[in-house]
Amino acid sequence: MSSVEYPPLERTIDLPDMIAYAGATWDWHRLHYDQAYLAARGLDRPVVDGQVFGAYLAIALRGWFGPHAEITKLSFRFKSLVFAGETIRCHGTLREVADRHAVVDLRVEVADDGRRAVAPAEATVRLP
Amino acid sequence: MTKLLTPELAARIGEQVSYTAPEPLGRASIRYFALATGDPEPAHRTGEVAPPTLICETNQYAGVPRDDDGYAGHGWHLDVPGTRLVRGGNSYEFHGPVGPDDIVTATWRLADMVERVTGDGKRMLVVTSTATYTKQTGRVLATNEETLIYVER
Predict the structure, then answer these.
(1) d(Cα A46, Cα A38) in Å, to the nearest integer?
(2) Among B58, B89, B93, beta carbon nearest to A73
(3) Is the Cβ–Cβ distance between A91 and A106 less than 8 Å?
(4) Structure confidence at residue A1 (pLDDT)
(5) Is the CB of A72 less than 8 angstroms away from the CB of B88?
(6) Degrees, nearest 5: CA angle B83-B66-B35
(7) 3-state secondary structure chain B
(8) What are the sequence ranges of the domains in chain B?
(9) Are A74 and B52 an interchain contact pair (Cβ–Cβ within 8 Å)?
(10) Phi, psi values for residue B138, rounded to 5°
(11) Continuous segment of H or E residues that includes residue A108
(12) In the prediction, which pLDDT does A2 show?
């Protein structure tokens, strides 16, 4: 079977998006908004909460497989920080389909410089 | 050289703590999460069904005061001198839909700690935790294996 590469999900993550996500997840860590806290750690921009990439990958998967597909497993490893204002792309490639389950290789890249934010990553999706 | 994985830290492997949300997850929480992540799915936008990763990402259930970093979620508060903490990754398994009426209990377990050396020769302590999320009926909603890494400065 030749591998299928899905159209990437692209998101620009601006500070208001990060503030909204911090509120929605009850996670008020200063890394995500506090300039003085960041400067003391040698960082010049707020750091995107890595957990949000799980949500973005889930959105991408449902876009690729449809709303009736059910994500049963999702795993990912963080490779590099992403900062406020950057654009990311969630990529997915179909690895295999067996017993109505699709296994997808995933990665998240930063659009500007291609650095990998999340990799390796994979998901299992139960097909309708 | 002193090990990062001290006997005191090693003795903590196996610790477990549970948090039960004081209220159902709620439509507003689901809707807010969907809006914040740009989730286009109508059932998420109306708050009828939670996006799958929500219960693994939220601190809603924890009810702990925020620390000096502003963080108000579960933590083991491990003392690993001379290191900085970085996220390793997560591995989720989802066992079925989560709805607004579900009252989530998260049970965290400090599963393992292993000392390793990075590619550039720095020591690191890899901490693996597991979380099991259940609802008020006892049904398991999801599991989460999380890796945090304390890297020598």
Answers:
(1) 7
(2) B93
(3) yes
(4) 53
(5) no
(6) 105
(7) CCCCCCHHHHCCCCCEEEEECCCCCCHHHHHHHHHHHCCCCHHHHCCCCCCCCHHHHCCCCCCCCCCCCCCCCCCCCCCCCCEEEEEEEEEEEECCCCCCCCCCEEEEEEEEEEEEECCCCCEEEEEEEEEEEECCCCCEEEEEEEEEEEEEC
(8) 7-152
(9) yes
(10) 95, -10
(11) strand A101-110
(12) 59
Q: Contact, A88 vs A55, CB < 8 A?
A: no
Question: Which residue stretches of chain A have pLDDT < 70?
Answer: 1-2
How far, in Å, CA of B67 to CA of A28, rounded? 10
Is the pTM value of this prediction over 0.80? Answer: yes
Residue A24 gets the label, from left (phi > 0), alpha (psi -120 to 50) or beta, of alpha
Interface residue A25 vs chain B (CB under 8 A):
yes
State both tokens at B132: 């099991």
ipTM of the complex: 0.95
Helix (H) or strand (E) segment spanning residue A17:
helix A15-24
Q: Are the CB atoms for A48 and A84 separated by under 8 Å? A: yes
DSSP code at position A45 = S
Burial (CB count within 10 angstroms: exposed 0-12, middle 13-18, buried 19+), residue A68: exposed
pLDDT digit of tens for each residue in chain B (153 aa)? 688 999 999 999 999 999 999 999 999 999 999 999 999 999 999 999 999 999 999 999 998 999 999 999 999 999 999 999 999 999 999 999 999 999 999 999 999 999 999 888 899 999 999 999 999 999 999 999 999 999 998
Domain B7-152 top-level CATH class: alpha beta
User: pLDDT value at position B118?
Assistant: 85
Which secondary-structure segment (H or E) carries A75?
A: strand A70-78
Residue A7 CA to residue A2 CA, distance in Å, equals 16
pLDDT given at position A108: 98
The maximal CA–CA distance of chain A, rounded, in angstroms, is 52
For residue B36, give the nearest of A20, A30, A78 by CB distance. A20
